[in-house]
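User: I'm preparing a small set of examples for a lab meeting where we compare how different chains pack in three dimensions. I only have the primary sequence for this one, and I'd like the structure in token form so I can line it up with the others. Please keep the answer compact; I'll paste it straight into my notes.
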Amino acid sequence: MTRWLYLVPAGLLAAGLVWAADPPLKPPPVPQPPAALLKPDPTAKPTPADLRGYWAAEQVVEAGHVRRSHAWRFVDDKHLVWVLAHAQPGVRQSLTTKYRYEPTADGLILHPVERWHGVERWPPKADEKPGEYLFAWDDDRAGFRLTSKTADRDSPWQVMTFRKADEPEAPVPDPLVPDALTKIDRTIKKEPEYADTPVYLLAVVGPEAKFKVWVVLAGKVLYVDRNGNGDLTEDGEAVPQPDTRSDNNPVYPAGDLTDPAGPTHTDFRVHAIPTAGGDVVAYLRLTVGGTVFQLAGPTDLRLAESPKDAQVVHFGSRVVTARPGRLAAPNADLTGPFQVKVGTPGVGPGSFAAFGWRELAEGVGPVAEFAFAPVKPGEAAKTLKLPLTRRVDACEFYDDLTVPDGVKTGLDAATVTLSFPGCPWGEVKPATCAVDVSPKRK
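Assistant: Understood. Below is the structure token output for the 442-residue chain.
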């Protein structure tokens, strides 16, 4: 599950005293599918002319609290890629599936070929039956109606109406990630003869992000460029998997990283966690300069198949911000934790490098200021200030939150402004984002 959160400086998004309008009932954004899925099958013919292009459908149910967006792309005369983005309070999920499509007299039969949950590849189930759909063109042939033959008749998801649309724009880069990080030189000067297919991740350390540490996993051996010189063949840079660790979560104690131009960074540890689809996600731990503890992953921090696609984690940066953590959807039905982490965004999903709280004094932490939209139009927003001084999971700050009565619930129903006065790791400028509010159960 992935929660897409958009943060802007607090002054640009009013969390003020009067809520002027409802949050927009827009469907969740549809992510771009992996590029490899969109490559035509070399044995297939080109996509038929009337099927070419980008086809979009939207579904909104439960008073706007649950929404789905669909995108179809026919990649040749045998295959299509279907991206489904699902949103409900506290949850953002995406499912991308490549199908072999088989036309019938009244529709299509879809045979799954490859599937991705978010950025994680999953194999199709061996016993999964193909999907069967009725297919009917609109009169102008600029759209079509798709009806599942197997869904319940009363299902709100049974019927989808697709229309031809423009390809969505590329996601806006995180404004806090400097250009130098997105355009970083990804050259590896020398690599060993790997015994297995390598996958890549790049860690950079220090305010200028000049100390580059490549992390490469090949089978059960991890290679770490400890001195950042781009040569992974030097002595001590191959770290075999410890025999005492589980294959489901192998931990590689890579030791110290020595920056020729700076301090030694200590106790670098890499967890390399295999997924059901054959990918590897990473969980990184590093003590920057031997004093400041940071963590990144695991969630979506996936090792990539090439250096050019590798995600970049930035440790020891001067860019410090606060972001909602794992539990960040207030619930109108019960009092529960609202979690925040403090750190630095990197390049790619899951690349946020959070600071650990272990060296902080008790009572120190970020602050969350909420503005809840009132049910009655024209009333003032209900505001609430919550210091987050309790701690969990090595890097998350939290406290329990009770949603006020008489406020709206649903997707993007409130805003929260996060700040951290006196943050020991750097200045945290207040930033505001929308948050979901889970409704009360009936």
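A couple of notes for your slides: The two ends are 25 Å apart (CA to CA). The chain has three domains: 30-165, 196-315, 321-437.

User: Perfect, thanks.
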